[in-house]
Amino acid sequence: MKQLLLVFVGGGFGSVLRYVIGKYLNSTATGIPYGTFAANIIGSLLIGIVLGLAAKNDSLTQSQTLLLATGFCGGFTTFSTFAYENHVFLKSGDFTSFALYTIGSFVIGFLAVFLGMFLVK
Prior knowledge:
The protein is mainly alpha-helical. It has five helices and no strands. Helix content is 82%, strand content 0%. The longest helix has 25 residues, at 95-119.
């Protein structure tokens, strides 16, 4: 039960922060989802740091890892919104934004995880 509560609390904080970032950074004028992109990249960096610390000499407890990685980062990042925003790009025929957003999110997201893990070594 304690593990569920940790994931619940972390996920709640992550989701609220993602909402705030999206509210202020997603561009209604251009339709470019800067907030979602930022949340996903920052979340990728954070999960790399958290899981890197967890793997490094057990620097984090299992409870801390659940709260931060599974809970916070899971609530903060969002694949469903990313997928929907790509649907909107495709539906509107904006293939350039679709390609840049998709490729950029994957490449930079992976690099951010690796960077986070590298930083804690």
